[in-house]
Structure formats: C-alpha cells, structure tokens
Design goal:
about 400 residues, Rossmann fold, 2 domains, 6-stranded parallel beta sheet, about 15% strand, elongated
C-alpha cells in the first residue's frame, strides 16, 4: 500500500497534528508500506521526518495556481492508494473533484482528520475570533465529507460537533496514537530545573492566546501566596511570550515563573511537575494533557473539547471552566493540599491513557479503515465509533 499524508504545519515547532502525521507515517513504513509526508518546506515537520527516515515532499498549501500545481504534481508522482490529510483545505487542493461532490469510483481513498474543535471560532492559534473564516471552513467540510472515504475526528467531542453542524459521511473517532512505553522511557532522562517546590507547569508548544497561559499565571499568583517556594514552569515559545513575561512582572511573580522556551523533549519536564495545568481555551484533544496523564502527573485542566474525555473530573484529574482564574487556582490548590488524593488521580489518569490511547489500538483501526476503503476488507466501523 502507498500512503501520502498531507499536513499543513507552522515552520518553527511541531503541533499535535504534525506529531500525529509523523506517528502514522512511521507506523505505515513499519507495515512495509510506502509512506510519505507532504508539508511545508523548511519546517519542524520536515526536520522531524528526516530524522525518522520518512520521505518528505515540500509543498505550499496555498490557493495560487502554482501552489496547487505543485501539490498535484506531488500527488501524481507518489501514486498513493490512500491520501490522509490533517485538515480539509490541503485535501481539497490536492483533489479538486471533491468540491464537485463527485463520488470517486477509483483510488486513491481519501481521509481527513479533524484535530481541533470545529465549531469554535477560537481554534486559531492567536485566539482571535474569526466567525467568517470558521463558517467557510466548516462549510467546506460539510460539502466534501459525504464523498470522502472517512472523516476522523480526534475525540467524541469533535465528532459530536461535526454531526451537530451537519457533517455527514463515515465518521470514526481516532485519537492521536500515543506510545505510552516510549513516552515513559523518555521521561526518565535527567533534567536540570530551577530550584523550588512545588513545581506547577504546562507545556503548550506555542505560546499563543488560545493556550490560556495568562490564566495559569493569574492562578499561580494566587497559589504562590500560600506556597512561598512554589515555582511555575512554562514550556513553549511564540508571539505571546513577551506579553506573558510582562504579565508575570505585573503580578509580582516574575522571579518564580520560568519561561523555558520551546522544549524539544518535554517528557522529563512534565514528569518532574507536582501539578500539570492545561489551561487552554479550546482543544480538539490536548496532546500535552495526554502526556501528563501517561506519566501519572496530577492534572487540572479546562473543560474544553476532547480534554473532557481524557480528564474525568474527580476521577482522573480535575476539570475547571475555561478562562476562570479563581477556579484554576482552586484546582491547583486542591491537588497540592492533598497529595495522596492527587497521586490517586494521577495513577487513574495513567490507566485511562494506556487503555484508551495506546498506539496499537489506534493504528489497528486506522489500517482497517484504509483497507475497507480500498476493498481489501469490507468491515466498516459504525459512525463515530470508538477504536476497538
């Protein structure tokens, strides 16, 4: 089988969608298939693909004719049996017949993964509300979904949102595959951290307003008043870093908040935390929260998107309303004040991740969907089905 993955990604850092693409492509190669990624040239995705030995084709997912021509030349040269895109626009650019709503009678099979909360206008990294753009994007997905071989929402929350906005077709929930054993092994690497305990922190990759780190800082300011040695560790970089550093100074906690920049390997950092905080305003699933749960780190996170499936309030962690500084501070304080209960939550969260997000389980379903679409195996899963 030949599989081509299409992934639009920022140039500086890996995103959850980019990481998902790398995992799928690497696993397809291990199957003995030919797999390649088409994405932005000079990006972190391209560098990671090269490091993993995954063939990479540099393209620009733009509307201009030369961009479209370049992408379609890549598709023709790869001769894929399956095209799997991480968002709708790259797939439509690669296969213009989808817009005409023509059912395809031949290969390649076509799939799209939806890794963000589709109904929210806050899915953009800068957290600006863009209702017109959001509506156009969702309209495009509604148009093409019925003629695709599958739509893969990353969580049940995303699946419900798609169905609620009128997306029809073959929908199967496919979380980002997660290699728990590898992640835990990587977490054992020694790391030097600033002095101070308890350690409260987050790893968001991109410091953008969408990630809600400003709410974490305000919550930490309240917690820090009761824990004089506490520190806050923020892994990530981006356009909001200067504003966040200014906010920390205004709150009087600049000496206790450590901005670590982009951390290539966040596992040791997350493992060293006493409390992991996921303060996002919107999440399709929340990869970093999954990573913290896998390490049995007690988690307090916002009740958004797929995070509400990962974190069962009071069972595998604590959930608080988004953008609620007081509730976030109260959740952190609860985990710090009762370490035994916090530890129990962490262990329960770890068990949940192993059961629900293990790589083998997710990949098994993905390969079954590819084969079904190609007629190799005619055993479709029910719509919005969980992985087996």
């Amino acid at each position: 089988m030949r599989v081509l993955y299409l992934a639009s990604a920022p140039r500086a850092h890996l995103t959850g969608a980019a990481s998902q693409t790398l995992i799928l492509a690497a696993a397809a190669l291990k199957q003995g298939w030919h797999a390649a990624i088409a994405g932005p040239g000079g990006s972190a995705l391209e560098r990671a693909a090269a490091g993993a030995g995954i063939p990479f084709r540099a393209v620009t997912f733009g509307p201009w004719p030369w961009h479209v021509r370049e992408l379609r030349q890549v598709v023709r040269s790869e001769t894929p049996d399956v095209i799997h895109a991480m968002s709708t626009v790259p797939l439509v650019l690669a296969a213009p017949g989808l817009l005409a709503g023509r059912p395809r009678q031949r290969r390649p099979a076509m799939f799209v993964s939806i890794v963000v909360e589709p109904g929210s206008p806050l899915v953009y990294a800068d957290a600006r509300r863009r209702p017109v753009t959001t509506a156009l994007r969702n309209r495009l997905l509604r148009r093409v979904a019925p003629v695709l071989d599958g739509v893969f929402p990353v969580s049940h929350a995303v699946c419900d949102a798609l169905e609620g906005m009128g997306v029809r077709g073959h929908l199967v929930v496919l979380p980002t595959p997660f290699d728990v054993d590898s992640w835990r092994a990587r977490a054992r690497v020694p790391i030097d951290l600033p002095p101070g305990r308890p350690r409260i922190g987050t790893a968001v990759g991109q410091l953008q307003r969408l990630k809600g780190v400003d709410h974490l800082l305000r919550a930490f300011a309240s917690v820090a008043s009761r824990h004089p040695d506490a520190i806050c560790l923020v892994a990530g970089d981006g356009g909001e870093r200067e504003n966040l550093e200014r906010l920390a100074a205004e709150l009087g906690i600049a000496d206790r908040v450590h901005f670590l920049g982009y951390v290539e390997e966040p596992a040791p950092l997350i493992a060293a935390l006493d409390v992991y905080v996921g303060p996002s305003l919107s999440e399709g699933l929340g990869t970093a929260t999954t990573e913290a749960l896998a390490l049995a780190v007690p988690v307090v996170a916002t009740a958004v998107g797929g995070t509400m499936e990962q974190v069962v309030d009071g069972v595998t962690g604590l959930l608080v309303p988004p953008a609620d500084d007081d509730a976030l501070a109260e959740g952190i304080e609860r985990l710090l004040s009762d370490r035994q209960a916090a530890s129990a939550l962490g262990l329960a969260g770890q068990r949940e991740v192993i059961e629900q997000y293990g790589t083998d389980r997710v990949l098994q379903t993905t390969w079954a969907e590819y084969r079904r679409a190609l007629g190799v195996e005619a055993d479709p899963l029910p719509e919005c089905a969980e992985t087996p």
